[in-house]
Design goal:
Length: 196
């Protein structure tokens, strides 16, 4: 009697899991349509495991799928959100022109609101967005950008010299550059935005 109940319960649980898996596929496939992307997605997580394990490879695959699609788009599912990867710059401009609360909102990154804050310019709409763009526009004039380029060049060359010296001191052996690149980018941003 107990054995039959366990089999029945196991069958019921298996059917419920299969139904949940199927139900999770429906909104993804409805939105995805003919776009390239994974044929099946893990419920709730989607492709997040692939993205976290090897982020560079994940985005390379997305870019390759978008390129092969002929329209510059690829689709995926991350944490229950449907995402579209856009490779074509002209299409990006057209899409960004239509970002609004009643159409769709820009994500930028699955954790974008936590990383950059909900008040970031990419999450603003309408007059608020236009006003912020108007206020920061002077930072992107030719004169301002040429000033930034000179500061960036100075910082980058200093880092390159340090890396070459460090490599020579180690007998010209290869060295990992992830942390040194991060440090260089942080120093470059600080020197440009705040000062040395």
């Amino acid at each position: 009697m107990v054995d039959v109940d366990l089999r029945t319960a196991a069958a019921f649980v298996a059917a419920a899991v299969a139904l949940y898996f199927l139900v999770e596929q429906l909104p993804y496939h409805r939105k995805k349509g003919a776009l390239p992307g994974p044929p099946l997605v893990v419920p709730f997580l989607g492709s997040v495991v692939h993205m976290v394990r090897d982020p560079a490879r994940y985005w390379e695959v997305m870019a390759a799928q978008a390129k092969e699609s002929g329209i510059g788009l690829a689709a995926d599912w991350l944490f229950g959100y449907f995402i579209v990867f856009i490779r074509d710059s002209e299409l990006s401009h057209r899409v960004f022109a239509n970002v609004r609360p009643d159409a769709f909102q820009l994500t930028g990154h699955p954790f974008g609101r936590k990383l950059w804050g909900a008040d970031n310019i990419i999450y603003k709409f309408g007059d608020e967005h236009k006003e912020l763009r108007r206020r920061i526009a002077p930072n992107f004039t030719s004169r301002a950008l040429s000033t930034y380029a000179a500061i960036q060049q100075r910082v980058i060359l200093a880092h390159l010299r340090r890396w070459l010296d460090r490599s020579a001191a180690a007998g010209n052996k290869s060295m990992p550059l992830l942390v040194p690149f991060r440090d260089m980018n942080l120093e470059t941003s600080q020197a440009v935005m705040v000062g040395p």
